[in-house]
Amino acid sequence: MGVPPARRTSGMWGKALLRLVFALALPAVLVALWWAASAGSTNVYWPPLRTVFGVFPDVWTGERLRGDVLPSVLRLAAGYTAAAVAGVALGTVIGSWRRVRALCEPVLEFLRAVPPPVLVPVIMLFAGIGDTMKIAVIASGCVWPVLLNTVEGVRAVDPVLAETARSYGITGVARLRDVVLRSASPQIFAGLRQALSIGIILMVISEMFAAGNGLGFTIVQFQRGFAIPDMWTGILLLGLLGFLLSVLFGLAERRVLGWYHGLRASGRRSP
Amino acid sequence: MLDVQGLHKVYEGSGRRTEAVRDLTFSVAAGELVCLVGPSGCGKTTLLKCVGGLLAPTAGEVRLAGRPVDGPPPGMAFVFQEYGRSLFPWMRVGQNVELPLKQKRLSRQRRRALVADALESVGLADAAGAYPWQLSGGMQQRVAIARALAYEPEVLLMDEPFAAVDAQTRAELEDLVRRLWRERGITILFVTHDIDEAVYLGERVLVLSASPTVVREQLKVDLPDQRDQLHTRVNPRFAELRTRVYEQVQAAKRGR
Amino acid sequence: MLDVQGLHKVYEGSGRRTEAVRDLTFSVAAGELVCLVGPSGCGKTTLLKCVGGLLAPTAGEVRLAGRPVDGPPPGMAFVFQEYGRSLFPWMRVGQNVELPLKQKRLSRQRRRALVADALESVGLADAAGAYPWQLSGGMQQRVAIARALAYEPEVLLMDEPFAAVDAQTRAELEDLVRRLWRERGITILFVTHDIDEAVYLGERVLVLSASPTVVREQLKVDLPDQRDQLHTRVNPRFAELRTRVYEQVQAAKRGR
Amino acid sequence: GSSDPGGKDTAGPSGGTTTVKVGVVPVLDVAPVYLGEKQGFYADRGLELELVPAQGGAAIVPGVISGQFQFGFSNTTSLLVARSKNVPVKAVANGAASTGEDGADFAAITVGKGSPLTSAKQLEGKKAAVNTLNNVCDTSIRESVRKDGGDPSKVEFVEMPFDRMPAALDGGQVDAACTPEPALATVKAAGGKEIASNFHDVSPDLTVAMYFTSQQFAGKNPDLVKKFREATAESLKYADSHPEEVRQILTTYTKIPATLLEKLTLPRYPAEPDRASIERLAELGERDGLFEKAPNLDELLP
Amino acid sequence: MRGSDAALGAAGCAVFVLLGEAVPRLGLVDEDHFPPACRIAGALGRELSDTAFWSALGDTLTGWALGLAIAVSAGVVAGVVISVVPYLREVTASTIEFLRPIPSVALIPLAVLLYGTELRSVLLLVGYAAFWQVLIQVLYGVRDVDPVAEETARSYGLGGWARVRHVLWPTALPYVMTGVRLAAAVALILAVTAELVIGAPGLGARIAVAQTSQAVPEMYALIVVTGVLGLLINVGTRAVERRALAWHQSVRGEVAV
Ligand SMILES: Nc1ncnc2c1ncn2[C@@H]1O[C@H](COP(=O)(O)OP(=O)(O)OP(=O)(O)O)[C@@H](O)[C@H]1O
Ligand SMILES: Nc1ncnc2c1ncn2[C@@H]1O[C@H](COP(=O)(O)OP(=O)(O)OP(=O)(O)O)[C@@H](O)[C@H]1O
Ligand SMILES: [Mg+2]
Ligand SMILES: [Mg+2]
Fold first, then answer.
1. Which of A3, B126, C164, D242 is deepest in the core (most CB within 10 A)?
2. What's C69's DSSP letter?
3. What residue of C is the nearest CA neighbor of B84?
4. In a domain, A132, yes or no
């Protein structure tokens, strides 16, 4: 009595199309607005969008893509991964033991409040000025949302689930892997998503210091060199990069949190 | 096997103080099946959690096989009253049943067999691939039971395990529990609200008073060891016992 | 009052497709108390949710007072099988009961009275200030019942509402429901696994088949309107009816 | 906010005096305006200064362009670059200049303690720290290397703020650094050495920085600009002849430690920018690719 | 219990300070560039006795508090509206993901262009950065509503607003609290950074002066001040959380036993 397969596939295409329309509609409107608002602008810092679009292909093709965007993305990947691992690991420990939390939290909160632009020089003292430093800067910023969300997620594990695990002798690594982290995963993912955009932001900040290449470096150079339309293309590219990464992130999330989406959706009127 | 001595439990927090259990003393022999009945809120779950090492008593002591319980003892399985919340929503039914077995370091093959067996015995053989939240309440409860059975425990603590299943399934599960108990010599502590069930299943029925709780009565169930749904339930002794328990529960409830 | 026509419901998602309800057709007159019994997992909850407008049927229609149901109708109260999760953990018991009344724009005074009354009638007068998670399972379930009663609904849908309470309390609650039903002329759809309860409470008992579900039998309960725990249950007609229902449930379960 | 550069909201006359906001970088170079303000040179002309310290051009140039600041302070190369991109900046007064003494300038290429480097030529294949790439620091270092007979294209430049340079030299992260005061004195105090005076190498009279406004503002408020220029020229002159007062005024708007204060080499503060040196700078900038076409100095200079 | 927590926290801080003293003393880094804790403390003492410092602190806190208030209220409202209105989430998703990674530092010229070095400039940067933190947490939090709770609310005829208020909001609250804690730090960071770069008055501007002046201990002293501010802010949010989330497992789970 199910839906015939032919209709189901066409439905699938329809859904994909609808998703595309959803994804593009608002950006299209915004771009149109920006285009119209900036059309006659003579302000150097606020160039017409047409000019920005015009220089975009020249700026971001070939050598720049390989020489600036790629290294940046690699550093981002390294820093983000380091932050994710450290954040989840540390968060689990801190969230599981109240005393550890009481011990660490003040220091962590202290560190968290130090602005990256003043933190970078300090990191430079220890990590030099190479890629290590940049990765450390990215990681040092990304780690917070992951850490905080992990701590809260771990603290909020359903007591009945925790007791179930305990009563069946599920302890140690198995408890961590099969119970605590899974239960906290919706919140951890919230943190990971936050961290993604923060990572991009810190990628830019880290490249404002002692860099020779990179997306952030290039944008800052454009800004200093008063190549304002080029700078705007850089900002657009950052946005695009963020969007692209979030799409990838969404795919990963859908895999890992499939159960959760199913569970939460089971209360909606029409499935 | 199991010794509960002067158990006392007070819950405190969020502006409330509840003396759930005042003073419980009883013991359960190895391989015995004891049913617990008592008014709603009298502390049965509390007692079971203390016995299972999940809750620290305020005073008194629980000893299992001579050793004081201060954490869940190995070889113990627990079927929670909140069956729905005790299943891991991120695992499919099969995985839920299998997880504790992994902890026991059984071979993959053995685990498979145990899981399939347990699910089969609660009538859920074809639900192994579903997520718990895709099942009905009664099915979820049976998954929780299957998990406990597959674990092959020595001590089995069950907190109203059949509350959500239909009469027919319930009868079948009762027989299943009795069979396993006889075959494997498990020690079982069984909480139920169904007085017929308590008498039908138990070797002994413990009636608890209303909160703050003490043991109101211990009743030996002197029915033949071999029981079945048809004959045992019409046995005049069965009727006597169930009336007796019913009176006690009624008195316990009024007695507060 | 309530018309269910060719109701069909298929669950799909997370790699599973379950035809929960195949074809249900029945109706309930205004002010009738109908009990639903059926094997575990046969679709009773699904049916109730469709009737309550919480779930959209895959096919078929539900009409309430002539109007098709496409959302929770006003004046309806629902007691969920998952009583624990249906209480808001961030509200104290009193607030949980009061919330729907606020929605009804009753005066503060009237709300107070209704809340106190309802909690009193389920025996939880002194738990108003506790959080739901500070209560035992049976107490939580009674809070959910109190919430439904305080709401003074015209249509009451109850999904195994007494599963977690002791025998004595259960009897009292049964009488409470029957009394309110008689006094207020509410239309009640009551899901239960306890066959005695179904016969004792209902004007009619609907037996559902195993999944995929159809109506297996509709049984008119021709017991006197005035029922009580002592006399009704020993009435020979009662015994006949319950045997009849039991057989049907047994057959339904085997029949899959 | 409006992009009207009239500065009406803040620059409106109030009781005969006009308040002007000047975006400055809190370094030695701007001491004369602080001093001039204290001496009343601006007040004499009906100007009340509001000096807003900012980190650099990123904040000051857009502020001036949009009229949030009436005047700003910037290094000359940045102004040249801006001009070449048709950013409507207009220099109005001189800022600071090289001391004109080789080996005793207020900025120098320095190396850390124990470094084997002794001359600019040896920078080939080495890492040199500059505060911003494609700006006066690397242009002038290249010139020093060139003058010393080396190949400037072989120097690797790394960007970092001046204040991090002493640490980077000590840590061996860079081999040399373009350090103006007070970084220069810090390096020297830590045992580092000067190996060349890069500003001096561009021109002994190099105009390192200037005060500027936007073309629009200059066009609409010639009077105000004139007053500011005169007051600044007077301040510069005064500062040049009262170095002790300059050191004194530094303590009010910087936190330069007292131990360093006496050791600082002050820049010169000529009243007028040196056009020849700026032309030289533009030439070098064009050569190093800072801009495709050297900007029109007539448009830039007052 | 609260007292022993505070003692533990103090112990953690003490270890951190000792580390700050030991690392330069042991020669792991140069004292000139990373002064030992006692020298920072000395500089801190000098700062604290300077009235200009206090007015700078006031400026920073004003920018922080206003910016955070704007970001939190906007983030919560936007998050709830986006989740509640059908299809709005799908429509806005791409735009949100596009805008989020745009760094506030890249917006500095724009901010200065619009508002110069006024407070509004700082607010723009602070608000922009902190807004996203709250928004994302709200979006994830709203999704966490228990289906049974949602059904309960619907069956009792709770309307849209009542459901938001009584079901959605309490469910999302733990997420929102985390969002606020994240945003509070980000707002502080951006307030200081904005002051640092564009020179709006405040702690950041003082840090910039200390940096360009090679006044290393003073710079670290000011950084310590921002860190301590962050710490105090966290103490505040934790206190709020203990009250607002008393019912939640994360809080009650640690009270009991
Ligand atoms: N976590 C808790 N915090 C505070 N009080 C609690 C908690 N759990 C149970 N209680 C209280 O302890 C008493 C006993 O609860 P318990 O759950 O043990 O009862 P029970 O016998 O299992 O009841 P039921 O048959 O209804 O499940 C009740 O009054 C209850 O309110
Ligand atoms: N959210 C869901 N997603 C997928 N399948 C579901 C879902 N809810 C119920 N089902 C399936 O629908 C069928 C009927 O479920 P339902 O909950 O209606 O049964 P029930 O009659 O209430 O059973 P019980 O007496 O055990 O509560 C079951 O096979 C169940 O697996
Ligand atoms: Mg219980
Ligand atoms: Mg059900």
1. C164
2. P
3. C82
4. yes
Q: Which atom of ligand 1 is nearest to the CA of C141?
A: 26
For residue C44, the ligand 2 atom closest to its alpha carbon is: 21
Report whether pLDDT(A10) > 80.
Answer: no
Q: Is A245 helix (H, G, I), strand (E, B) or coil?
A: helix
Structural domain count of chain A: 1
Compute the distance between CA of residue C177 and CA of residue C142 in angstroms, rounded to an integer. Answer: 12
> Which one-letter amino acid corresponds to residue E137?
Q
| Residue E1 forms contact with B (CB below 8 Å) | no
Q: How many CB pairs under 8 A join B and C?
A: 121
For chain C, domain boundaries? 2-75+154-254, 86-152
Query: Side chain identity at D129, as an amino acid letter?
Result: A
Q: What is the pLDDT of residues A162-219, one digit of tens each?
A: 999 988 888 888 899 999 999 999 999 999 998 988 898 888 888 877 777 888 888 8
Tokens of D53: 């310290």
pLDDT of residue B15: 81
Calpha distance E43→E221 (Å, rounded): 6
Q: Is the CB of B18 under 6 A from ligand 1?
A: yes
Residues 6+ apart with CB under 8 A from C235: C223
Contact at 8 Å (CB) between A234 and A215? Answer: yes
Shortest Cα distance, chain B CAs vs residue E256, angstroms: 7
Q: What H or E segment, with its residue span, contains residue D27?
A: none
CB-based contact (8 Å) between A45 and chain D? Answer: yes
| Whether pLDDT at A45 is above 90 | no
Residue A33 falls inside a structural domain: no
Residue D89 Cα distances to D33, D84, D219, D295, angstroms: 20, 10, 11, 12
Chain B nearest-CA residue for E255: B13
Pairing relationship of beta strands B187-191 and B33-37 according to DSSP bridges = parallel
Mind listing the pLDDT tens digit for each residue in C135-193? Answer: 999 999 999 999 999 999 999 999 999 999 998 899 999 999 999 999 999 999 999 99
Q: Is E35-256 CATH 2.40.50.100?
A: no
Selected residue with higher pLDDT from B217 and E112: B217
Here the tokens at position D197 are: 């005076």
- What is the spatial distance between Cα B149 and Cα B121, in angstroms, rounded to a whole number? 9
Using pLDDT thresholds of 50, 70 and 90, give the confidence band for residue B45. very high
Site to probe by mutation for ligand 2, drawn from C8, C18, C79 as the one with most ligand atoms within 8 Å of Cβ, is C18
Reported as a single tens digit per residue, the pLDDT across A83-117 is 999 999 999 999 998 889 889 888 988 888 888 77
**Is the residue at A51 inside a domain?**
no
Q: How far apart are CA B189 and CA B158, in angstroms?
A: 6
Q: Which chains, if any, share at least 3 CB pairs under 8 A with chain A?
A: B, C, D, E
Q: How many CB atoms lie within 10 A of CB B63?
A: 15
State residue E9's pLDDT score: 87
Q: Is residue A265 part of a domain?
A: no
C-alpha C211 to ligand 4 mean position (Å): 12
DSSP letters, A41-82, are ---TTS--HHHHHHHHHHHTSTHHIIIIIHHHHHHHHHHHHH
Query: Do the beta carbons of residue D76 and residue D82 sit within 8 Å?
Result: no
Q: Whose CA is nearest to atom 27 of ligand 2?
A: B137
Q: What is the value of ipTM here, to two decimals?
A: 0.88
Measured between CA atoms, the residue of chain A closest to residue E143 is A264
Pairing mode, strands D127-130 and D71-75: unpaired
Instruction: Quote the CATH superfamily of domain B2-75+154-254.
Output: P-loop containing nucleotide triphosphate hydrolases (3.40.50.300)
